[in-house]
Amino acid sequence: MRVLLGTRDLLFRSKLGAVVAAAGAEVVAADADLVVLDVEAPGAVERIRGLVSQGVAVLAFGPHVRAELLRAAREAGATAVPNSQVEDALRQAIFPEP
After folding, report:
1. pTM above the 0.85 mark?
2. Structural domain tally of the chain?
């Protein structure tokens, strides 16, 4: 699986990259099977809509206090979770349980 990590936070990107690598997936800059996006990034909800319309899976994450952004991401077609759950959600997205 090819995973694009859409976050500017380098420490968080490193943590997510480690999850991807441990799962045997590959971090890519384009043409991803799964895009992981920060819902607080400018234009995130519009980007989610565009990706979902192209058939790309999206995992959105953000602070639990930004419930309205997480809800908007879900309504746009993403799986959206608080920051505290994104690593587990990423593992699940790469290797879904039967």
Report:
1. yes
2. 1
